[in-house]
Amino acid sequence: MAHLAVDAWESLLRAQVTLMKAFAEDFRDSPVTMQEYDVLYTLSRCPGGRTRLRELADNTRLSQPGLSRLVERMEHDGLVARERDPRDGRGTVVGLTERGGEVQRAVGRVHARSIVARVAGSLTAEEQAELARLCTKLRTSAPEPG
């Protein structure tokens, strides 16, 4: 059983590595990096395009210190805005700016076409639905780190 789990994980990881390398090409001439797009996309899915920095870190591929530095640069570029959390002054809220939303939508259209070409070109609709179901199950049933 352990061998099967390790093989499944390795297969998933290798697929992700291969696809992420291919998707990196989508950002070669992009106004944002893949990491910046990850932040913009995540914010675009939040109510009002805003969330606490902590929740943003939980939903992106960056550590909180790395994300803090990235968000600072993105704020300087006019893509996001930061403010103290009005409910808890110790926290920071990050929100999409109008420019950030425009960039996210423009880059997202190109990136979505690339995803469709690579995923729909390889998997049937049923396989895509099953992959989404299985990945969601893995994500939601995984124990919290630490």
What does this structure look like?
Helix 2 (34-44) packs across helix 5. With 146 residues, the protein is mostly helical. The protein has helices at residues 2-24, 34-44, 53-58, 64-76, 98-120, 125-141; strands at 50-52, 80-84, 92-96. The chain has a 3-stranded antiparallel beta sheet. The protein has one domain (24-137): Orthogonal Bundle (Arc Repressor Mutant, subunit A). The two termini are 24 Å apart. The protein is globular and about 50 Å long.
Supply the CATH superfamily name.
Winged helix-like DNA-binding domain superfamily/Winged helix DNA-binding domain
Unreliable spans are none
The secondary-structure class comes to mainly alpha
Tally of extended strands?
Answer: 3
User: How would you state the average pLDDT, rounded?
Assistant: 91
**CATH topology value:** Arc Repressor Mutant, subunit A
Apparent shape: globular
CATH class: Mainly Alpha
Q: How large a portion of the residues is in β-strands, by DSSP E?
A: 5-15%
The major sheet is characterized as: 3 strands, antiparallel
- Tally of contiguous helical segments: 6
Total domain count = 1
The CATH architecture term is Orthogonal Bundle
C-alpha end-to-end distance: 24 Å
Order of helices and strands: HHEHHEEHH
